[in-house]
């Protein structure tokens, strides 16, 4: 449905309010695709390029290089009207914080009707019927329609935001950390709702999170981002059950599940600056396996079964089954 082909996003770096000659490499050579009915999880630490990827996928950010193909058509060769119209209605976005994403002065009815009015969808009666259908889709009771966002709980507000994203019957939903601002008690409900909507509507979905254990629970495929690069990508069972990139293993060990006995890998130091990143593997400065071979050039792509691919000179051995079973306990280590 949608494919990024060698996408780069670079920004001009600023220092002290002035633009410098340096570039911020927010995304480098990103290639990935999302099929209909599939949930792709994007994971990585803060600043690794997740939101940039979301902006590229939703047409809000034009790549500096590379292509965004929607059903094979180059998004940036479409006219502005096509991009806003056909593409704009085919992609829905759910943001992290529903408190700031919803206009506090509009009722839920007005919030849900707004995209239908802007895109002139059907008659007035048809739009009203669609608004009620949307509320039903996300499991909210009818009286919610007359409420203001401030009168709803965080979980209910996020359901409204999801309903709004569905208003124009999109093919793709991009959800940028949609549960991070919510109470722990309602997170699972919102995650279940997203999976349920994918199943019922056959949507493609990109789910962005810094928490690989959450992503593993609902995604079909996972792409792991580090300093603007996709360092590993594949089916969730392989990436989370038998990771090949040390960074993926470190992310997995950071939030171990109750069933797993994998020892925690402590990554020391921050993610390096995205301004003029080093030519080699971006993970070199924090990797316990790094040697001179890692510092010279970005590792070429290696691949395994099911489209599993990774960029690492010293990949993790394939020790565990890709069924998601726990990997054997690795030796204790730290990058300190
Ligand atoms: N408009 C911009 N101008 C300059 N640099 C930018 C701009 N937007 C993003 N960046 C930089 O690009 C890199 C990737 O940012 P991005 O927001 O995509 O990361 P992220 O993984 O979403 O982080 P977070 O989880 O904190 O939102 C960061 O180094 C960020 O500082």
Question: How does this model look, in words?
Answer:
The chain has helices at residues 50-57, 80-90, 98-101, 108-118, 124-137, 154-166, 184-201, 212-218, 236-241, 246-254, 292-296, and strands at residues 2-15, 18-34, 39-43, 65-70, 73-74, 91-94, 172-176, 204-209, 221-226, 229-235, 302-303, 309-310. By secondary structure, the chain is an alpha/beta fold. It has two domains: 2-219, Rossmann fold; 236-336, no CATH class. The strands form two sheets. Strands 6-7-8-3-9-10-12-11 form an eight-stranded mixed β-sheet, sandwiched between helices. The chain is globular. The N and C termini lie far apart (43 Å). Residues 320-336 have low confidence and may be disordered. The protein binds adenosine-5'-triphosphate (ATP). Adenosine-5'-triphosphate binds next to strand 2 and helix 1.
SSE topology sketch:
Elements: E1 2-15, E2 18-34, E3 39-43, H1 50-57, E4 65-70, E5 73-74, H2 80-90, E6 91-94, H3 98-101, H4 108-118, H5 124-137, H6 154-166, E7 172-176, H7 184-201, E8 204-209, H8 212-218, E9 221-226, E10 229-235, H9 236-241, H10 246-254, H11 292-296, E11 302-303, E12 309-310
Parallel strand pairs: 3-8, 3-9, 6-7, 7-8
Antiparallel strand pairs: 1-2, 1-4, 4-5, 9-10, 10-12, 11-12
């Amino acid at each position: 449905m949608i494919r990024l082909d060698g996408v780069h996003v670079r920004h001009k770096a600023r220092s002290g309010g002035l633009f410098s000659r340096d570039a911020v490499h927010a995304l480098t050579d990103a290639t990935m695709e999302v099929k209909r009915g599939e949930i792709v999880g994007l994971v990585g630490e803060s600043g690794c390029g997740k939101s940039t990827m979301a902006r590229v996928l939703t047409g809000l950010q034009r790549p500096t290089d590379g292509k965004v193909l929607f059903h094979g058509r180059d998004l940036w060769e479409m006219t502005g009207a096509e991009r806003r119209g056909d593409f704009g209605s085919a992609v829905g976005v759910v943001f992290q914080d529903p408190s700031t994403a919803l206009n506090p002065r509009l009722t839920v009815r007005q919030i849900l009707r707004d995209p239908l009015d802007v895109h002139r969808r059907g008659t007035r009666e048809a739009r009203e019927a669609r608004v009620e259908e949307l509320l039903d889709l996300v499991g909210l009771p009818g009286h919610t329609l007359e409420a203001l966002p401030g009168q709803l709980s965080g979980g209910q507000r996020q359901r409204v935001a999801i309903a709004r994203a569905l208003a124009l019957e999109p093919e793709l939903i991009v959800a940028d950390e949609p549960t991070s601002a919510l109470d722990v008690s309602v997170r699972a409900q919102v995650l279940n709702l997203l999976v349920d909507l994918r199943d019922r509507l056959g949507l493609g979905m990109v789910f962005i999170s810094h928490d690989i254990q959450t992503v593993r629970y609902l995604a079909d495929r996972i792409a792991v981002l580090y300093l603007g690069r996709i360092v590993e990508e594949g089916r969730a069972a392989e990436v989370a059950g038998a990771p090949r990139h040390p960074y993926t293993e470190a992310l997995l060990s950071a939030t171990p599940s109750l069933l797993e006995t994998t020892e925690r890998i402590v990554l020391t130091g921050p993610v390096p600056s995205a301004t003029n990143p080093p030519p080699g593997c971006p993970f070199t400065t924090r990797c316990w396996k790094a040697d001179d071979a890692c510092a010279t050039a970005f590792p070429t792509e290696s691949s395994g079964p099911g489209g599993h691919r990774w960029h690492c000179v010293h990949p993790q051995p394939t020790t565990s089954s890709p069924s998601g079973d726990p990997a054997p306990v690795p030796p204790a280590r730290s990058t300190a």
